[in-house]
Structure formats: structure tokens, C-alpha cells
């Protein structure tokens, strides 16, 4: 027991952390790395698919290779990692697959077509996989879908909604998102949206006519929220090209 003014010190644990570099967009790389993990660490019982990229370009200005990269990393990689680690989970009927998607995998906005498509794909993959595990009566394998709102990591720096609404929907702190996700995983929660208002937006998008959704987006400033972000990315790209004499 800690004395007055002292903090509780957690018991010493001999934990080992293994790190591997892997391009999850390349299935051969995923399978080779997965084999290394099995040989050097052991079987994986918790798989968290969290890798994500964004091109930051309007559709007609976006190079094809960036669109392909977004789809490969944000969506296709989930197939490769799951195929690499799910067989042992099925054999043991034990494991947990976590898909870190996005609120933009439940409802979309303008200017980030590739990102939205990839996250919708990740959500669809996760839901179908969850149904498949239930149909196979593999109740020992749990699944959790994580769909956060804008997270303050710099990935979408410049994204702005209506200024009157911003105080009620500020970017989420990464630590908060991690805590919410961990709580959902530890309690076998099938899905977690942060903040909870995202459940309401998803529900409204599902029941309202499209034109009503457009009006709601315009009221929130969500219809063009990505435009400042895209403009910043374009300016940064132009500045880099100017520096390099391109």
C-alpha cells in the first residue's frame, strides 16, 4: 500500500514487446511477417487492424496510384491480416478481431471519395466476417468495430465544420479514443462509435431522404468540411515541389 502522497506503483511484470515492419498493403509482406511472428512470438489471439492513409486530393486531381494505395492499406489489408491469423483462432475457437474504421465508414462527406470508400469497405468486411463467425458458431472469437469521429492526430489537419458547432464536436484526443476502444474490446462490445453523437448521425442518415441529409450536412458544415484540409495538403505539395525545383 502506498504511503501518503505516494502513487500506487504497479507490480513489476516481465513483458516483452516485439515490433515488425510490414507493408500491410502487400499481401506477400503480410503473410511473411505473420509467419515470422508465429515462429518468434507464437500465435496471435488479438488482431487489431488500425493502419490508415488518406490521399488528400479531390477525385479528379488524385493520382490513380494514391487511390490504389488508400484502398490497399485501409481495406484490402484487412483481408490479408485476417487470413493470416484467423485459421488458428478458428482452430482454438478463441480470439478477438478489432477493426479500427472511421465514422466516414458509416456516412460520407465530399472530397475524400477514396478514404470513404475504403472505410465503407472495412466496415462491410468486418460485419460480413462477424456474421460468418456467428454462422459457424465460433462464439469464442469476438469482433469489435471501432468508428471514431475526427481524431486529433494531424491526419486530417485543417478539417473544419461550422464554427458554431465546433465547440460541441471538437477533434477527439487519441488517448480518449484508445480508452473507449479498449473498454469496448475488454467487454466484447461489437461496435463503438465515439462520440456517442455519431450513433445519431448514422441513424438520421439511414432514415432521412438524401436531400434532407444534404440539408443536415450543410447545417453542420459537414458538407465541405474536408475542403480546408485538401487545400492545405495541396499548398504543402506545391511548396515541396517549389523547394525541390520541380
Question: How would you describe this protein?
Answer:
Pathway: Cofactor metabolism; retinol metabolism. It holds the Pfam family adh_short. It catalyses: all-trans-retinol + NADP(+) = all-trans-retinal + NADPH + H(+). It is a single chain. This protein has 246 residues and is α/β, with parallel strands linked by helices. It has a single domain (27-244), classed as NAD(P)-binding Rossmann-like Domain (Rossmann fold), CATH 3.40.50. It has helices at 27-40, 64-92, 113-135, 174-186, 197-207, 210-220, 227-243, and strands at 46-49, 95-100, 141-148, 191-194. Strands 1-2-3-4 form a four-stranded parallel β-sheet. Helix 4 (174-186) links the parallel strand 3 (141-148) and strand 4 (191-194). The longest helix is centred in the first third of the chain and has 29 residues, at 64-92. The N and C termini lie far apart (64 Å). Residues 1-6 have low confidence and may be disordered.
Give the name of the CATH superfamily: NAD(P)-binding Rossmann-like Domain
How much strand?
5-15%
Distance between the termini: 64 Å
Number of domains: 1
And the CATH topology? Rossmann fold
- For the largest beta sheet, what order do the strands appear in spatially? 1-2-3-4
Q: Count up the helices.
A: 7
Question: What class, by secondary structure content?
Answer: alpha/beta
Overall shape: globular
Listing every helix as H and every strand as E from the N terminus to the C terminus, the arrangement reads: HEHEHEHEHHH
Helix content: 40-55%
CATH class: Alpha Beta
Radius of gyration: 21 Å
Pick out the low-confidence regions. 1-6
Protein name: NADP-retinol dehydrogenase
Pathway: Cofactor metabolism; retinol metabolism
Membrane topology: Single-pass membrane protein
EC number: 1.1.1.300
Amino acid at each position: 500500500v502506498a504511503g501518503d502522497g505516494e502513487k500506487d506503483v504497479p507490480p513489476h511484470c516481465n513483458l516483452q514487446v516485439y515490433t515488425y515492419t510490414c507493408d500491410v498493403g502487400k499481401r506477400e509482406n503480410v503473410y511473411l511477417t505473420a509467419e515470422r511472428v508465429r515462429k518468434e512470438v507464437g500465435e496471435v489471439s488479438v488482431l487489431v487492424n488500425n493502419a490508415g492513409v488518406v490521399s488528400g486530393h479531390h477525385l479528379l486531381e488524385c493520382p490513380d496510384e494514391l487511390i490504389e494505395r488508400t484502398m490497399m492499406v485501409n481495406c484490402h489489408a484487412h483481408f490479408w491480416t485476417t487470413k493470416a491469423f484467423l485459421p488458428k483462432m478458428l482452430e482454438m475457437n478463441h480470439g478477438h478481431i478489432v477493426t479500427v474504421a472511421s465514422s466516414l465508414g458509416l456516412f460520407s462527406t465530399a472530397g475524400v471519395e477514396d478514404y470513404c470508400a475504403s472505410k465503407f469497405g472495412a466496415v462491410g468486411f468486418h460485419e460480413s466476417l462477424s456474421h460468418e463467425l456467428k454462422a459457424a458458431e465460433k462464439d469464442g472469437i469476438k469482433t469489435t468495430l471501432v468508428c471514431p469521429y475526427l481524431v486529433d492526430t494531424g491526419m486530417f489537419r485543417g478539417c473544419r465544420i461550422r464554427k458554431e458547432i465546433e465547440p460541441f464536436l471538437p477533434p477527439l484526443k487519441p488517448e480518449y479514443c484508445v480508452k473507449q476502444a479498449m473498454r469496448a474490446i475488454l467487454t466484447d462490445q461489437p461496435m463503438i462509435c465515439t462520440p456517442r453523437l455519431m450513433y445519431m448521425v448514422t441513424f438520421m442518415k439511414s432514415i432521412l431522404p438524401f436531400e434532407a441529409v444534404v440539408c443536415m450536412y450543410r447545417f453542420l458544415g459537414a458538407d465541405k468540411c474536408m475542403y480546408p484540409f485538401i487545400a492545405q495538403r495541396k499548398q504543402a505539395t506545391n511548396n515541396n515541389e517549389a523547394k525541390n525545383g520541380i
